[in-house]
């Protein structure tokens, strides 16, 4: 089940076949991956999915079963073509921003340079991995932004769009600042912390709530979080939890928390906090869950809710309010007579006109403030920004919006990941990627990071690139 070469759209194989039939399948091509609009009307996205992409590319090969399946297709692919597929391996270059990077619309997140046969094959899988993981990481970052230093638990597996989404979504949430997941497989696969409380069924399996609480505490004395809303949160759940906590104290143990899972979470948490404090149990924390997202968190905090840890499931793992990131993979250069020539895709919508050529992205940091001013896309041959020469920044759609910058640092965002088909990138561990993400956020003024109506962060083109795009546009308009 791990074979993923056919995890692609049929049109990719058909184009690959037609290239092969015409003898052009070894011509080199350059593709950019980027998105046009951040999800959730957020100001940015959090890039995720590279680890999955690396594993996929490393293992990319057609199995006999896959080749047999292709041989039976109505297209009648020639056996000689299937032989070419049998020996296909990725031999090209992939550049990518690291996982956890704060990214913006219109800038290349990945650049793929390879024979067209390979570059075309991997499009679908790369978009599949990066679109989903980036979406969930971005949703998680929004929730984290509101939660601040509170605890955040990922509870989404039961509502996720199948098993892969559950584990990679749990990883994306951790990358963006969640503290643990309830999914043990994600914990094992990625080395992320796991946490669990108990369900209503535990209470219902006993003759009384207090018996259920005592038996749970006896079995797992160091990991006791009791769900207090099975019958009546304030009349029975919290008083029973207090009795159990006191009995634990007599055995030298401390209850960790209670969990609220229904009703008015602001009111109930304040009342529960007061009851716990009055009983001398100020160390017992309060966990809340029930269809939470960043908006409800914001509201609950505004109401003075006394919640220490938030369990978030459905709305995070399914990105319920904006469930697809529209990342695309567009051809920007192709080999002609042995050299790579930029190509353009024209659209009546100026935002959809592609930016031709192999490009690098630089994050321009103001040396005085240490904050990011803009991202600057230049052709790979341009070196002005590495040499610190003054830059003219202007909006590619509204070129009259301009500024000059002198004292800056230009950080290249795209890193080499594969070179001539070999992995040259040291994949950072998840803890490292998570810390990198947290540090990256510090580079941005809060105006770009706020939950509602964020400022638009500038993503600009170098004058050279802009002129080249204009030239190609004019040439096609004639
Ligand atoms: N004080 C509050 N302010 C804003 N939203 C809240 C507050 N308390 C709870 N919520 C949210 O309101 C929604 C209430 O969900 P729902 O209508 O299912 O009620 P419930 O209390 O869970 O009922 P049930 O007992 O049927 O589960 C949830 O998304 C919850 O997180
Ligand atoms: O609400 P979410 O953000 O998706 O978090 C996960 C939910 O899963 C559990 O509920 P359960 O499966 O028992 O269903 P219910 O509480 O919705 O009835 C848990 O009690 C949370 O409420
Ligand atoms: O551990 C929990 O409390 C939990 C796990 C999954 C879903 N809801 C709650």
From TrEMBL:
Which GO-annotated molecular functions does the record name?
A: nicotinamide phosphoribosyltransferase activity; nicotinate phosphoribosyltransferase activity
User: Where in the numbering of this chain does the Nicotinate/nicotinamide phosphoribosyltransferase domain appear?
Assistant: 153-352
Task: List each copy of the Nicotinate phosphoribosyltransferase N-terminal domain by range.
Answer: 6-131
Q: Which Pfam families match?
A: NAPRTase, NAPRTase_C, NAPRTase_N
InterPro entries found in the cross-reference section: Aldolase_TIM, N/Namide_PRibTrfase, NAPRTase_C, NAPRTase_N, Nic_PRibTrfase-Fam, Nic_PRibTrfase_pncB, Nicotinate_pribotase-like_C
Q: CDD domains annotated for this entry?
A: NAPRTase_A (cd01570)
How would you classify this enzyme at the top EC level?
ligase
Q: Which pathway, metabolic or otherwise, does it act in?
A: Cofactor biosynthesis; NAD(+) biosynthesis; nicotinate D-ribonucleotide from nicotinate: step 1/1
* Keyword set includes Cell wall biogenesis/degradation: no
Record-listed E.C. numbers = 6.3.4.21
The entry's comment on post-translational modification says: Transiently phosphorylated on a His residue during the reaction cycle. Phosphorylation strongly increases the affinity for substrates and increases the rate of nicotinate D-ribonucleotide production. Dephosphorylation regenerates the low-affinity form of the enzyme, leading to product release.
Key word Glycosyltransferase present in the record?
yes
Domain Nicotinate phosphoribosyltransferase C-terminal: where? 359-469
Any GO CC annotation of this UniProt entry? cytosol
Q: Read off the NCBIfam families from this record.
A: NAPRTase_put (TIGR01513), PRK09243.1-1 (NF006694), PRK09243.1-2 (NF006695), PRK12484.1 (NF009131)
Which PANTHER family does the entry link to? NICOTINATE PHOSPHORIBOSYLTRANSFERASE (PTHR11098)
Protein name (record)? Nicotinate phosphoribosyltransferase
Taxonomic classification, please? Answer: Bacteria, Bacillati, Bacillota, Bacilli, Bacillales
Gene transcribed to yield this protein: pncB
């Amino acid at each position: 089940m791990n074979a993923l070469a056919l995890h692609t759209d049929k049109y990719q194989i058909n184009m690959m076949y037609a290239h092969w039939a015409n003898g052009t399948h070894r011509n080199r091509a350059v593709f950019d991956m980027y998105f046009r609009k951040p999800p959730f009307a957020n100001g940015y996205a959090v890039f995720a999915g590279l680890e999955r992409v690396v594993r996929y590319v490393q293992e990319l090969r057609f199995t006999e079963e896959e080749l047999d399946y292709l041989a039976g297709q109505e297209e009648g692919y020639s056996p000689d073509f299937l032989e070419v597929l049998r020996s296909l391996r990725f031999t090209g270059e992939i550049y990518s921003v690291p996982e956890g990077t704060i990214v913006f619309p219109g800038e290349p997140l990945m650049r793929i340079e390879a024979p067209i046969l390979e570059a075309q094959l991997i499009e679908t899988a790369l978009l599949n991995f990066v679109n989903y993981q980036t979406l969930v990481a971005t949703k998680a970052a929004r929730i984290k932004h509101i939660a601040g230093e509170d605890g955040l638990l990922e509870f989404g597996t039961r509502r996720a769009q199948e098993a892969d989404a559950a584990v990679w979504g749990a990883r994306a949430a951790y990358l963006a600042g969640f503290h643990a997941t309830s999914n043990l497989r994600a914990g094992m696969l990625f080395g992320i912390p796991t946490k669990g409380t108990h369900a209503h069924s535990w209470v219902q399996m006993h003759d009384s709530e207090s018996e259920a609480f005592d038996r749970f505490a006896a079995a797992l004395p160091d990991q006791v979080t009791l769900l207090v809303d099975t019958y009546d949160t304030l009349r029975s759940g919290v008083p029973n939890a207090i009795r159990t906590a006191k009995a634990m104290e007599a055995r030298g143990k401390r209850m960790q928390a209670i969990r609220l899972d229904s009703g008015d979470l602001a009111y109930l948490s304040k009342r529960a906090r007061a009851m716990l404090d009055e009983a001398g149990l100020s160390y017992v924390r309060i966990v809340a869950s029930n269809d939470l997202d960043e908006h409800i968190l914001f509201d609950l905090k505004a109401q003075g809710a006394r919640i220490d840890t938030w369990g978030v499931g459905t709305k995070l793992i399914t990105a319920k309010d904006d469930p697809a990131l529209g990342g695309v993979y567009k051809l920007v250069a192709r080999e002609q007579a042995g050299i790579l020539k930029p190509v353009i895709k024209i659209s009546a919508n100026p935002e959809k006109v592609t930016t031709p050529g192999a490009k690098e992205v630089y994050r321009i940091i103001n040396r005085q403030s240490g904050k990011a001013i803009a991202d600057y896309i230049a052709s790979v041959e341009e070196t002005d920004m590495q040499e610190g020469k003054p830059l003219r920044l202007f909006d590619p759609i509204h070129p009259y919006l301009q500024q000059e910058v002198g004292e800056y640092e230009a950080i290249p965002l795209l890193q080499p990941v594969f070179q001539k088909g070999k992995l040259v990138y040291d994949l950072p561990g998840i803890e490292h990627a998570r810390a990198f993400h947290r540090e990256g956020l510090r580079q941005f003024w809060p105006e770009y990071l706020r939950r509602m109506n964020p400022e638009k962060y500038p993503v600009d083109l170098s004058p050279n690139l802009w002129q080249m795009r204009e030239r190609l546009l004019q040439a096609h308009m004639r």
